[in-house]
Each structure stands twice: as structure tokens, then as C-alpha cells.
Amino acid sequence: MSTNSLPTINALTHPERIRISNSSKHSGKSARFLLRLFLLVIFLFSFPLVSFAATNVSGHITSDTTWTLAGSPYIVTGDVTVRHSNFRGPVATLTIEPGVVVRFNPGIGLYIGYSYYYAYYGALSAQGTAESPIIFTSNAASPAPGDWKGIYFKAATNDAASIIEHCVVEYGGHSHNSNIYSTNANPTIKNSTIRYSSSNGIYLNGSSNPTIGGNEESVNFIIENGAYGIYSDDVRPFPVISHNTVSDNGSYAIRVGAMMNNVSSNICSGNGVDGIEVLGEHVTANSTWKINSVPYVVTGDVTVRHSNFRGPVATLTIEPGVVV
User: Fold this and answer.
1) What is the mean pLDDT of residues 153-172?
2) pLDDT tops 80 at residue 198
3) Nearest CA among 283, 254, 278 for reference residue 266
4) Residues 268/290, Cβ–Cβ less than 8 Å
5) In a 3-state reduction of DSSP, which class is residue 178?
């Protein structure tokens, strides 16, 4: 063997030398990994941490306002009314970002629109997402039905700008017998859960013609309310109520007048009375009773006749499969 040649290590005769060499390589890799981890931690902590602090709100909102995720949760300590400062002015809109939580102190509510001789218009745009719903709830440590008033849409609501979408509204009913109360207003309610009211889920008063659901892509869950799921207090409202799940409420699933055209494809189950209560009235224009998962229960006389003795015929159409 040449004197300039290096000796060859035989793995079979000198295994300890191979183990030492491999151990050194492993130690080097571990050191490099720890260094990288250390640098990553320093990098991450070099940015300020985001923390959300509660925001207390009350009073009148008289110009466009946004409740942001950064300000969530919002604690409503006194009634909030959304309405423009000038009755001749435009609409004041409260916009709520996805993921925001709004908590109401006992006996407190959210009012949209205001009237005092004149109409001061307001709107609520509460559009969450399936992943980040907006939640309207009680601020009590142990929430219970009837803790807060609910959301009240008044006659001075700007209908086109008012929408509840991908929201949860729960534990209302304190003063207005519902989680959502609409009087002469027509907001859109879709993809939302309305639950745990001490009385009704949604209450319709006067000429209220809201869209509740509307199609297969807009299903609401109106569940576990103390009385009706959806309640019309007389025959004047002509709402669109379709493609909703109305279940486990204390009384009828839905209550509407006989002169209806847009109550359809609702799935109702587990309610105190699994039916749609139909109020007695004179049907003076063409109307259609459409199919739902439960029967229509007529609680007053229904007379079908045109409003004008010289006019055409008023027809009540009942779809195939409907049970009355």
C-alpha cells in the first residue's frame, strides 16, 4: 500500500466509526432545525397581536355606520334606533360585518326606522357568511328566552337595503313577542336561524310583506320558539314564506291569511300543532294554496268572491296534494 493512500474503514470490522459519523450528521441537522424554529418564533412575535375588546353601544344611529369584526362583541346597553337625522334626508344604514357578535342587555332591542309625525328612514344590512355568521343574542351569563326585545323593523324601514342573511337571532321576545318583529316593513330574511324566542320566531304586523326564505338557496331554520314559528297578527300581511324549516315551536308552524299566494315548500315538524293556521277572511282576488309538508288548518270562515260585483271572478286554487 502506498504511503499516500488513506486507510479504508470497513463497516463490518469497525461499526463504531460508522455510528459516530451518522450521529454527527444527525446532530447537525437537529441544530439547523432548532435555529430555524427560533428564527420563525422571533419573526412571528415581531408582529403585534390582534385582540378584540368589547364595544358598548346605545342610542340613535343617524348616519351610515359599520360594526366591524375588530370591534366585536358589541354590547347593547340601551335601545339602538337606526334612522337618518333628517326626515327629508337619505337612509341611515347600519352595516354589520360577518362574524360579529351583538349581545343585548336585558330588556334592550334594536329598532330600524323611526316615525314622529314624519318618517326618518333606517336600514339594517346584516350579511354574514356560512362560515362566519352574525349572531344577535343575550348578554346574560345564562341566556334564556325573552332576555331582550329582538329586532324591530318599523314602517320607516328602507326595505331594499334591509337584509338579514347568515345570521342567528336568539333569546328575544321580551317586549314584542318575537325575535324579529316587522310592522309595515318588508325586509329580506334568508339563510338564517331564528330560535329560542319566548314567544314567536317572526311576527308580522300591518302591511308587512317580507321575503322569508324564498328559494332552495335561502333556507331559514325557525326553530324552538315558544309560540308560532311565523305569526301574522291579521290578514293584511302578504309575505313570501317558502323553503324554510319550521320545527319544534310551541304552537302552529305558520299563521297567515287565506288570501295567500307565496307560502310553499316549507318543511314543518315537531311543532305544537304541525299545520299552517289559515285565518278566515274574504278571498277577493285570485289566490293559491300551495303544497307544504303539513296541512292547512282553517280557523275561520273563508268566502271566495270578487271585491267588485261588476268585476271578474276571484278564484281560489288549491294545488294537487294539499290537505285542508
Assistant:
1) 98
2) yes
3) 254
4) no
5) strand
Number of H helices, E strands in the chain: 1, 31
The Cα–Cα gap between 221 and 193 comes to: 5
This prediction has a pTM of 0.84
Nearest to 243 by CA among 259, 221, 227: 221
- The greatest distance separating any two alpha carbons of the chain, rounded to the nearest whole angstrom, comes to 128
Backbone angles phi, psi at 20, to 5 degrees: -65, -45
- Which helix (H) or strand (E) covers residue 76, if one does? strand 74-82
User: Within 10 Å of residue 165's Cβ, how many Cβ atoms?
Assistant: 19
Strands 118-120 and 114-116: antiparallel
The distance of Cα 154 from the centroid of its chain, to the nearest Å, equals 19
Measured CA to CA, the distance from residue 45 to residue 205 in angstroms comes to 55
For the cut 60, the answer to whether the pLDDT of residue 31 exceeds it is: no
Does residue 75 surpass a pLDDT of 70?
A: yes
Mean pLDDT of 207-222: 97
Find out whether 265 and 292 touch, Cβ atoms under 8 Å: yes
- C-alpha angle 189-68-179 in degrees, rounded to nearest 5: 30
**The three grid cell numbers given for residue 258, joined into one nine-digit string:** 287565506
